[in-house]
Amino acid sequence: MFEHLNAQAQDKIMALMVEYREDPRDTKVDLGVGVYKDPTGNTPVMRAVKAAEKQLLEKETTKSYTALGGDPAFVKALSGLVLNGAVEEGRLAAAAQPGGTGAIHQALELVKMANPDATVWVSDPTWPNHLSIIKHLKMKMTPYRYFDNDTRAVDFSGMMADLGNVAAGDVVILHGCCHNPTGANLNMEQWKEVTELLGAKQALPLIDIAYQGFGDGLEADALGVRHITSTLPESLIAASCSKNFGVYRERTGLLMAVSPDDKMKAVTQQNLTHLNRQNFSFPPDHGARVVQMILDDPALRTEWETELEEVRNTMLGLRTQLAEALQARTGSDRFGFLAEHRGMFSRLGATPEQVETMKEKHGIYMVGDSRMNIAGLNKDTVDILADAIVDAGV
Ligand code: LMR
């Protein structure tokens, strides 16, 4: 039977991870997969996570099943972090998921059940796995303009013009903050205009928020998602704890669905639980429990917020340092956008050939579309990268 299987297209980010690991050079620099690294190149377990895990080891008395939708305390704590009361409880259905990817997959399955004809609109560019999941689910997909390659900022008029063509019942994937892969984000005024447009079109926003706290701070990064979900009758939110709690391998995420009223919430909730049961039954609990313990314990929460701010400020410092290093080498401000972008990623705007040159000659690994993980840098490797960018003629 297996002879009927076809080879699948490789995920570019995952393939790059393997290639980097196999490169024997000591001087190699990994700016590929979106993982935070400290100045020594390690991805640390966050202090509050370690402390919560220690407590859990002592206190946990059972590994028996939780609930199909995940531990209700986790659902409450994480939805609180993202929405902070923007949506009434009577309208909010939610179920824990194995990571942000699980939440996106489940959100699209829910849409497919509700409207098999829905077209899924995605920013051009977007996270490659969005495209891959949509294709896997055999859903229709249309890109909307998002990034202006010349200014390296959001092409907002292009975005609005393209979203003017969405139909009622279509789904529009928006990045809640820290756009992946570009680093260019909507401002609040633009969030309001998008919200108004989707409301007028009766389209459903699906907000992917995987980097809350990595851009302008925990609160600022959630303002867009809070505005859109509190304004429109229906929306979906896929939240991930992989990055902001550093619990990547624990697969910790949440799918939230906002309904117009409590009756529809009950049906939606039941569908979310049903989907969990079909796909994996109970969602993973360890990461979720640790996240909930941190969010609900004032001391652990303060410790976590402090470390998250350190991480965020480190990334901002690296952004400024890189923009300045390039300014010094080129005598121009054309890389100033690197200090303006937010989150882990920036799209540099290099050609695939230039990306290849940087890899072959300088051991710098970035995704082929020239997405760089800023959090993969440290103050010493910034200069190596700046030299490589100039040498490759970007
Ligand atoms: C990334 O974009 O690098 C991360 O979200 C990791 C992943 O799963 O692709």
List the helices and strands and how they pair.
Blueprint: H1 12-22, E1 29-30, H2 47-59, H3 72-83, E2 92-97, H4 99-114, E3 119-124, H5 128-136, E4 140-145, E5 147-148, E6 153-154, H6 156-163, E7 171-175, H7 188-201, E8 204-209, H8 223-231, E9 235-240, E10 253-258, H9 262-279, H10 286-296, H11 298-330, H12 337-340, E11 345-347, H13 352-362, E12 364-365, E13 371-373, H14 381-391
Parallel strand pairs: 1-12, 3-4, 3-7, 7-8, 8-9
Antiparallel strand pairs: 2-10, 5-6, 9-10, 11-13
Bound molecules: (2S)-2-hydroxybutanedioic acid (LMR).
Subunit structure: Homodimer.
GO molecular function, one term: pyridoxal phosphate binding
Family: Belongs to the class-I pyridoxal-phosphate-dependent aminotransferase family.
Write out key terms for the chains shown.
394 residues, alpha/beta, Aspartate Aminotransferase, domain 1, Aspartate Aminotransferase, domain 2, 7-stranded mixed beta sheet, 13 strands, globular, binds (2S)-2-hydroxybutanedioic acid
